[in-house]
Amino acid sequence: MTSWQLSAKEEMVEKFLDAASRGDADQVSSLLSHAPSLLNQAGHSGWTALMLAARNGHRQVAEALLSHGCDKWSVNSSGQTAYDIAGFWGHRHIAALLGGAERGGDLVPRENYFGRETLDRLSAKRTDSPWLEAKKTHPGSVFLLFSDLSPMVSGSREDGALELCRLAYDAVKDLLQKDDVLVVFLGVDRSKVAPGEDPPAWFAVSTDEDAAALLQRCPGRKCSFPKSARRDLLALSEEDAGVLAPARSLLAWHARYGFCATCGSATQVEEGGHKRSCRNAACKSLQGVHNTCYPRVDPVVIMLVVHPDGNQCLLGRKNVFPKGMFSCLAGFVEPGETLEAAVRREVEEESGVKAGAVQYVACQPWPMPSQLMIGCLAVAVTTDITVDHNEIEDARWFPRQQVIEALLRESSQGLFLPPKQTIAHQLIRHWIGTSANL
Ligand code: ZN
Ligand code: MG
User: Fold this and answer.
1) Under CATH, which number does the domain 298-434 receive?
2) 399 C-alpha to center of ligand 2: Å?
3) Which of 20, 289, 310, 396 fits a 20 to 30 Å CA distance from 122?
4) CA-CA distance, 356 to 419, in Å (whole number)?
5) Is 206 helix (H, G, I), strand (E, B) or coil?
6) What is the C-alpha to C-alpha distance for residues 319 and 9, in angstroms, rounded to an integer?
7) d(CA 437, CA 67)
8) Out of 204-208, 285-289, 377-381, least confident range
């Protein structure tokens, strides 16, 4: 091959990659019809047309390339597939196209613990009193008992798994009739629908009755009310965690918001436990738009801050953390603040580091009592750390390799990370799954 031929070929590859990068599906297809060998050609740093389409979220180009049978598993010089790249840049539609069921989303973060919609909330039924009342006495309904915001569970954490105790109507019938017992409608179980039948309705029941006596209501296996929510509730299955999260947050809200926030009058529980309305007919909370009647959700930003060199991340620790544990920085979103501004403000307040670009990754309900953890990646634009000791004990840049070792071995040179049930862990995994030059 002469040098002239080589350069013409290179020019062709460049044109092809440029079309893929710009999202010009017609030109990509037309170039391929003339020169099918372009399909898997790589340019700078081993980037193929598919990777460029994945980088920029061009679905039509990705589809065209795949329909020509391109190699979706080839990697660039940093070891990333097009799928990895799509995941990093948040192009989930492309990641889904590339990953298919067999990848299941290693890098596009999976659904987070506490986030599964195990039940269909069926919110329209919350105002259907006859339907709700019928469900509350239905033999097929499921009742979860709570004592001091702790759910009755069977099994033990040591055995590796806890399960919510599902009680039948007969086991709680007398409790449901008591005035001081709170019953919240959680939804219906989509997975258990027999043809022609209503799916079972689920309720959370909160009572102050003696916990030991309550445990007698569940036949057989060893049951308990876990003492440490933060530790023990992470041992539930994904399905049960997805029921527990809304139930516990709702009950915590009822436990702390018994009176009208506007006028201090008594409130009444409505809509299956999803609303508390003021009983004072003259109260301002009954006119106009207010949120005082509804359960709280408190937005928290939690972010992994990446060093400008792309190879280190900023982790901090509070003094209440176990020795050696570092996690992502986090903080409550303030009124009138965007998520991006909250991320930048919290990072700077706690660590002195200034952050630039912020990218949303995933979120997680955290029912202790009712945060919504909004997970982001942020890119630092400064690197000097000044720790605010009122908020955290320490913050440091950790090199990628040390973080990988901590993820793999649970501990590395004294560093260990939060458990996989936390979005902090998933954010760190997400970053590790991507490359510095993506
Ligand atoms: Zn009021
Ligand atoms: Mg803070």
Assistant:
1) 3.90.79.10
2) 24
3) 289
4) 28
5) strand
6) 60
7) 28
8) 285-289
- Give distance in angstroms: CA of 391 to centre of ligand 2: 6
Task: Report phi then psi at 344, rounded to 5.
Answer: -65, -40
What is the domain partition of the chain in residue ranges? 3-107, 123-256, 298-434
**pLDDT one-digit tens code per residue, 240-266:** 999 999 999 999 999 999 999 999 999
Q: Which CATH architecture has domain 3-107?
A: Alpha Horseshoe (1.25)
Query: Residue 413: which region, alpha, beta or left (left: phi > 0; alpha: psi -120 to 50)?
Result: left
**What token pair was written down for 108?**
């596009």
Ligand 2 centroid, distance to 245 Cα (angstroms): 24
Average pLDDT score, the chain: 90
Token pair 């590339």 is found at: 98
* CA–CA distance, 317 with 143 (Å, rounded to integer): 39
Reading the block at residue 50, the tokens are: 């598919």
What is the distance in A from the centroid of ligand 2 to the CA of 395? 13
Cα 269 to middle of ligand 1, angstroms = 13
Q: Distance, CA 231 to ligand 1 centroid (Å)?
A: 37
Q: What is the pTM of this model?
A: 0.75
